[in-house]
Write a structure and sequence with these properties.
The chain has 157 residues and is mainly alpha-helical. 46% of the residues lie in helices and 4% in strands. The protein is built from 6 helices and 2 strands.
């Protein structure tokens, strides 16, 4: 099997609380944008350290969504000292608006192949191929989290 075991940098109960808190919004985004709730929840867990990363706590950004605007309005983007000057991240009014930002990002043309997918493996691989994350093990980590926390139970049947 191609499964990756990786050390999650958050506790089991922290992950469960994150899932419980956000499963409904992930399912609603699935209804509107056809992004599997399992993928959204796994990305949120991974990208935000289950809601506890610096980016999540200071910018309400659960998905590591970058800011590509050349003329950012004040407070629209955030840069952290460990990031290059190119790494500005979107700031959101709330965690919930971060979900919408993620859904809207995945409407971009470069993610179109994701929507041809029928399963988590395909979705995670297509996200990676489209350049969502630089981590070479990103697809396997997403797959691991989906399986570990039985996230497909939140997908449309």
């Amino acid at each position: 099997s191609n499964e990756v075991q990786f050390k999650m940098n958050f506790k089991e109960n922290t992950a469960q609380e994150f899932i419980e808190r956000f499963k409904d919004v992930a399912m609603k985004e699935n209804d509107i944008y056809n992004i599997p709730a399992s993928i959204t929840l796994a990305q949120g867990l991974l990208e935000s350290t289950a809601g506890n990363s610096k980016l999540a706590t200071s910018a309400n950004n659960l998905f590591g969504v970058k800011c590509f605007s050349k003329k950012c309005k004040k407070g629209h983007c955030k840069n952290f000292t460990d990031d290059s000057h190119k790494d500005f991240f979107r700031t959101y009014d709330s965690f919930w608006s971060s979900f919408r930002g993620h859904s809207e990002l995945l409407q971009k043309a470069r993610y179109k192949n994701c929507y041809k997918c029928k399963d988590v493996k395909c979705w995670s691989e297509q996200l990676s191929q489209a350049g969502y994350a630089t981590d070479k093990k990103y697809p396997q980590k997403i797959q691991y989290l989906v399986k570990r926390f039985n996230l497909t139970q939140y997908d449309k049947k």
